[in-house]
Structure formats: C-alpha cells, structure tokens
Amino acid sequence: MTPPPSEMHIILLIQEGSDPKTRIWSDHCSVRSAIEYIIGVYSTGQEHPNREPMDISRFYTFFDDIYDCVPLVYDRHFRAYIPHDKQWLLFQAQEYIKTNKPVV
C-alpha cells in the first residue's frame, strides 16, 4: 500500500543496547511522528517528564547512547524503503526541537 502523496511512511528500527532483546520497531506516517516517538522514549526515562522543559543536552546524550537506530523511509519513486543513518534522524530531531519544544 502506497502512502498518500502528502504523507511519508517511516519504519523506525531501534536497538537500545548491545543485547538483541532491546530491539524495537515502530511505524510512522511522518518524520514528525517518528521524532515525537523518540522524544517519548526519552521522556519516559526522565523523573518528571511532563513538569520540566526538555534538557536538550541530556536528549542528545540519550540519542548518542542508542546502540543502533535506522529509519527506513518509503520512497515513492523507487517504490522501496530507503535506509537513513542515525545522523540523518538526529538532524531531523534537531530541526523539530528548534521549532516545537522548549529546552533548558
């Protein structure tokens, strides 16, 4: 099934540690949704996730500590999922945070 033209489909593969049992995946209809998912994973590990602004340096440390993270982005032209690296996703997260999240 092809996503509507206004949307993008992303399958996010994350392995939090070296143990293969830490592998998780999720699918999203936009980059924004994938980033919000990662921020949610980060926030669940915080003491008071809803009371404080997001500490950007702690988020980047969390993101760097993820063992492996691969976003597979559907490309309508090739009719295939194209893998991107962790740095691509970090750039997307930085852009999202600049415009959407209060930071410390």
Short description:
InterPro entries: EHR_sf, ERH. The protein is of the alpha+beta class.
Structural write-up:
By secondary structure, this protein is α+β, with helices and mostly antiparallel strands. It has one domain (8-98): ERH-like fold, CATH 3.30.2260.10. It is 38% helix and 23% strand. It contains three helices and four strands. Strands 2-1-3-4 form a four-stranded antiparallel sheet. Strand 3 (68-75) and strand 4 (80-83) form a beta hairpin. The longest helix is centred in the C-terminal third of the chain and has 15 residues, at 86-100. It is globular and about 40 Å long.
Break the fold down into its secondary structure elements and pairings.
Layout (H helix, E strand, L loop, with lengths): L9 E6 L7 E6 L2 H14 L11 H10 L2 E8 L4 E4 L2 H15 L4
Antiparallel strand pairs: 1-2, 1-3, 3-4
By DSSP, the count of extended strands is 4
Question: Which architecture per CATH?
Answer: 2-Layer Sandwich
Continuous helix count:
3
Strand order across the largest sheet: 2-1-3-4
State the low-pLDDT regions, or none: 1-6
Biggest sheet descriptor: 4 strands, antiparallel
Helix content: 25-40%
Distance between the termini: 41 Å
CATH superfamily, please?
Answer: Enhancer of rudimentary
Order of helices and strands: EEHHEEH
Mean pLDDT, nearest integer? 84
Strand content: 15-25%
Rg estimate, integer Å: 14 Å
Shape: globular
The level 1 CATH classification is: Alpha Beta
Structural class: alpha+beta
State the main characteristics.
104 residues; disordered N terminus; 4-stranded antiparallel β-sheet; 38% helix; alpha+beta; ERH-like fold; 4 strands
